Structures are given as structure tokens and as C-alpha cells.
């Protein structure tokens, strides 16, 4: 049994070498689990659209074997219908394009303020700490109604959640601490409601434990992924100056660039796991009940059957049906917000700092090889 590929070879933006060697085949995770690796666009969409491939599972990270779970209240990303449907329906209308666009003025101000902070840093400056991470953290606090001064509570838990080197005990302690903080916050909001998604859900009939689960998913998913896209996407554009110039010059290209960067980088890859709830057929192969499936989003997004020149970054490329946000009933709820943040942040950064450049050789950039969400730990830049 071959191990699941992890080495990205010469290009840090490419999927791990050998990930797409087979459309469907068995690989072994570091935990010792043997899983079916799905590496073609149409097959990934098939798995993610079929709720018989259950989302009620955990493990696969930090040495913990894969296993079925009964999800914690409100943790809708680990739920199957009908519970997933109930919670998802309650939230979907609050993340529409129209509603996210109402946040545009606040996001534009957050980006401008953070650029002020970045410019004031000694050079070289860390773009991650001073730009890529604070922006989505501020935005998700604004959206949910969480005081920004409390951001360390969820940033710490988020870092533990995606860190593949941490122990299960550390993760449990961090999540418990975050849950206790959120219960206290909800109690304060019930006594004195304010503005934000949590406040809007107080009278929805949800139990406090469900509100905590929803808030945990939203806080962590709403900042960790976008922060990594802002950091890694900036690096990718710096390595492709002709593409960067197009993003800086044209607002329309800035919009298409976001989808192309999402596709090209695919910062979430093989952690998109499912479990066959019954015997299921996939590409002529029977996946036995209880077997686990890992969908490689990065390989799916580089599938030659999806588009021409899949290994090239082309910010003028027409929008393709990539799966960077997943697919099907569990497709990322906050994708409209993430797109809006990136559409605002990338061109603002490159217009404000037209001479922005990497301050160290690419080989010295610390990539997140030990983290479930790919990106860079730091990005030292000059201008």
C-alpha cells in the first residue's frame, strides 16, 4: 500500500507529486488508515454530492485513526441529513452574495487600516502577521458579533485544530476553552443583545450548545482559510509578476483572479474525508460499507478534463467549476464572504505597495507542510 503523497516537489504551489497518478486507488494515511483516494474532478464531485458518503467521521490527523462519530451540537460540517439540513437551512440566507456585499464598506476600511499597520512595520515585515491574518479575523468578528479584542480565543483554537503536530489532548483543551468562552459570550448577548450573526440566532430556537458549535465552525473556518489564501496567494502573484500586474490594473481581473488562485492553490486538499454508509459504486469500483474516502481537491482542480493548461496560473481565465470550496450540501457556507475579502484585499495591497517584493529566497519561505490548511507560516516582504 503506497503512502498518501505529501512531497510537493520543485513547485510549492503544485499538488503533492503522485497525488493524481490514479483516478481512484488505495493509499495509507500516516495514522495507518487505508483509504480510497479520489483524484479526478468528476469523481470528487460525485462523492461530495452523495450524502450516502457520510460526513459523520473524525480522525485522520495527529495520529488518531479514522472513526465514525456522533457530532457535537451545532457542528454541522460533521452532520448528515436531516440534522445538517436543518442547521444549514437556518444559516444559508445569512451568507448570500447580497448580504455579504453589505459588509463591503467595513471590509474596505479594515483592509485600508491593516495596510496602514503594515506600512508602519520595520522592514522586512511579515505579511501574514500584519495583513493576511488580521483581515479575516476582524471581518469574522464583525460578522458574528464577537469582540475583536477576544480574537486570541479562537485564533489559538484554530491553530490547534489545523496543526498536524499537536496532540489530541492539546486540541481538546483548546476547543474546551473556546467553548467556555462562547457560552459566556452567548449569556452576555442574551442579557444585552447586539449586532451580529450570533445575536440574530438567539431567538431561532437553537440551544446554547448548538449556537456554540455554529460559532466555532464559523470562527475557525471563517478566518483560517482566508488568511492562508491571502498569504499564499500574495506569494504566488509575486512569483508571477505578469499576473500580478493584471490584478493591480483591472478590478474585473481582480475578481477572476480570486477564483483562479483558489483553483490553482487549493489550500484544503485531502482532509475532505467521507465514509461509505452502505456499499457504493464509484468509477466501476465498489466502495464497501464503512470504508473511508479522501477527496483530493487539489488534484481535482488540476484535472486536464476540467480545463486546459491546468498547471498554469492565469488570472484572466474564465471561471471554472473548481471544488476549492468543496461541493454538494457541505460546500463552504462562507465562500461569498471569502471571495469578497480577497477581491478587496489583493488589489488594495498591490496598489498601495506597488514595489512589494519577497525579502527572502523562495526556498527560505516557511510553508505549512505540517498543517491541514496549506499556506505559509510567515511571508517576509519589502517594498
Could you give a quick summary of the protein structure above?
With 383 residues, the chain is of the alpha+beta class. It is built from 14 helices and 12 strands. A hairpin with a 2-residue loop joins β8 and β9.
Please supply descriptive tags for the structure shown above.
383 residues, five-stranded mixed beta sheet, alpha+beta, 10% strand
Describe the fold and architecture.
With 383 residues, the chain is α+β, with helices and mostly antiparallel strands. The protein has 14 helices and twelve strands. It has a five-stranded mixed sheet with strand order 1-2-10-7-3, covered by helices on one side. Helix 11 crosses helix 12. The chain starts with 23 loop residues before the first strand and ends with a strand. The mean pLDDT is 92.
Q: How many DSSP helices? A: 14
Sequence stretches where pLDDT stays below 50 over 5 or more residues: none
Supply the helix-strand structural class: alpha+beta
Count the E strands.
Answer: 12
Task: Give the termini distance in whole angstroms.
Answer: 48 Å
Give the radius of gyration: 20 Å
Question: Could you outline the blueprint of secondary structure elements for this entry?
Answer:
Blueprint: E1 24-28, E2 34-38, H1 41-49, E3 53-54, E4 57-58, E5 67-68, H2 83-92, H3 97-101, H4 104-119, E6 125-126, H5 127-132, H6 134-144, H7 151-162, H8 168-191, H9 197-200, H10 208-238, H11 241-249, H12 251-265, E7 272-276, E8 280-282, E9 285-287, E10 292-295, H13 297-301, H14 335-352, E11 357-358, E12 380-382
Parallel strand pairs: 2-10
Antiparallel strand pairs: 1-2, 3-7, 4-5, 6-12, 7-10, 8-9, 11-12
Helix pairs in contact: 4-6, 4-14, 6-10, 7-8, 7-10, 8-10, 10-14, 11-12, 11-14, 12-14
